[in-house]
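Q: I'm writing up a methods section and want to include an example of the input and output format. Could you take the sequence below and give the corresponding predicted structure tokens, formatted cleanly so I can copy it straight into the document?
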Amino acid sequence: MLMMIRFAFAALLLGASAGDVLAAAPSALDAATGALQAAVSGGTLGPVMAARGELVRLSAAEPKSALLHYWVAVADWRAVPLMQNTDKAKALKICESGIVEAERALELDPKFGEALAVKVGLQGMTFSLGGSQDMMTLGPQMEMDMVRARTIAPANPRVLFLDGLNTLHKPGFVGGGPNKALEKLREAIARFEADSAEGVGRPRWGHDDACLWAGRAAMMQKDYATARDYFVQALTINPKNVWVRTSLLPAAEKALADSSAQKG
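A: Here is the clean output for your methods example:
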């Protein structure tokens, strides 16, 4: 999968321009984003960081591509949860790097709603990593930015998903929690089912993420049957999702069985 990407950089060494490289190897970005998705499905940090490295190199070759900066930010967003329990300082560094990448994407394309939503998602992660930003200052700004992202891209399923995920992690007294999050995640799932994104490197990720997080919201509501259904849906979309297959779905099935036994 990574051979096409390496071919692109070999071409750079031979003197081709960045635009020529991507024109000569148009699947380089698709290969890199595919490697990232496969790594995320496997749930291990090393392959995620390797895919991130390929995206960083592609972005360095074409620094004026908003899409490439966006993808590096997405890779950072993916990497942080896999490292935050073992190396919080490194996780914070990657998180802050992702915010910079998202901001660069927005500088190049101010109407890139997904980049803005990813930036908000990364900013939310800094709170649990000991970031220096004041929650009382950053929180309202994040809220306004997410509203803006939804205004820019009202039907974008990844924007809706990230809004739902942020809502799930927000305290109830500021409008967060599983009830409101599940409404947004359901809207995102419906939009994913109608999504038809096309083009080299165009974002297509997130459908199984929206389902699994809807399942987690349902688990918080103790609606174990609904949670199980969402986890099954996530696996139908992405059978290689290790987290759902080995942890989330078995936990929902056990909780449902235990609940049924208690009622019986």
